[in-house]
Fold this protein.
Amino acid sequence: MAVYSFWIFDRHCNCIYSREWVAITQDKPDHQQEQTQKNITNTGTINARNQDHVAKLLFGAIFSLKQISSKLNPQEETTANNLKSFSTLKYRCHFFETGTGLKFCLLTDPKTENMQFVLKEIYAKLYYEKIVKNVLSPVDFKENEYIDNEVFITGVDNYISSLAVFNN
Amino acid sequence: MSNQLHQTVVETDVDNDFEKQINVSCLEYLLMELGPLALRITDKLEKYSSSSTRESNGSGNGNDNKQVDDFHYGGVELFQNESLVSNEINNQMLDNFGFQIGKILIEQLIFLKNDGISTKMDEILDIMKIIARDVWKMIYQKQIDNLRTNHRGTFVLIDNSHRLISSMYGPDKHRISGLYLNFSCGVIKGVLNQSAFKANVEADLKSDGSVHYTIVVI
Amino acid sequence: MSSKSYKSLSDDIWKNRVDKINSEVFTLTYGSIVAQLCRDFTYAEVNTQLEKMGYNIGLRLVEEFFAKTGLGRCTSFKDTSEVISKIGFKMFLNITPTVTNWSGDGKQFSLILDDNPLTDFVELPEDNNAANELWYSNVLCGVLRGCLEMVQLDCDVYFVSDVLRGDPITEMRLKLNKFLKDEVPAGEE
């Protein structure tokens, strides 16, 4: 079980955080890194792909799937038909969206079980504590403004490293 | 008999009101917002005082005005405005906020401790202890970690982690935390003032994240 | 979600997921701030500054709301009113205002506050225009406006009456101006 990358998009459709441990496109020849990683801190790239076509494609895919799933809602207005994840042959994208339009995505190998709880934890314990409660951090990011808060970045890395599913 | 009943009723009411509870975040957000508030007020006051000169000069910095009023990003834009942040008036303003709150809190504390009788505290050390224990607990939900004195009018209060400042992160951290420390110093001054003591209070943010308040009683 | 389940959710959040303090310090701190603003500005300007304060607070507070409740966006403005009054106010100020006075088009409603921690033991000065011009708790309007904007609702929030001013009840009015359209990525229109 491996984790490939972690992305945060805001309600303005901008990618405000990208953390990539294993590249999902052919651009970087790092496919050998798919063995389990014990500690992923200090590896991979941080905020290197925010303007990338990969980020835009990922966001586009999520956006379209959300639109489709809300249209294909059998229960009409009582409960929203929320997107949980989608899988391809090579990866599974776990998705969580907050009421404020923040979209958290985690890309893992296709066999990983539902990781929405991970994204919810990251939102409630890391994003809220380190970004929202930080007086110096914006709550609404401008274009080209990214999360570069080291405490947040290390926190996410450590939390994901500690998950049992990635440690066997 | 009827007098006794009346007394009981009154006491219960008072107890209930003092035990009213709210989410601690409300107080935290309020204190957090004191920084941007001070910056906005300073800017407004400067504009009022310079508006007459601007009219006579015929020129104006209309762009600056728009910048301060139209921010949308939760106060962060204000912090990035160099000229605004470096204005000395902000420090005084936050100091004053703290001062007023310190005054009111010590009154409440002494009122509560002495069953409604206001007494003046004579011992400076006792007041320092109240600041370190009770006042800090009320505002920051934690006590001062260390209280030192040379028994000759100088005190050092050490707070290992200031609630607001320890959650700050960013390039402006040192500058902006200095701004908020004025508030804490003001609280101490306010408490002392209400107890008829005058002191110089300085706060120092150390590299390990702890804050040292040095209080020299005049 | 039904009205009853909102209540049990909010009770659960208040009991288990919220750190609580005595409201006293909060009331005194806020009162001190208002008093100082009144020294430097006209009451109209004080109202504006309190609202701006609230707006900034609302932008952050809303994330705590979603993080702790686990709710998603509401499906209707009516639902929004229920969530605000039963969960929002409860988990922050431990009060539950009443929702009334819906407008015909369903875009406006009032919140009646029976209890307001901000105003405990507060009396407005009698000798000037405070009772006619100052909205003491105006920060609450800003908080609501900020929160609602983060969920794409452009609203006006304002006080209609306040017991501090001698009115019989304390009433806030929320008016929905428009839904801010969810932004779409370039090329998707």
The helical segments of chain C are 3-16, 23-40, 43-69, 77-93, 130-133, 139-150.
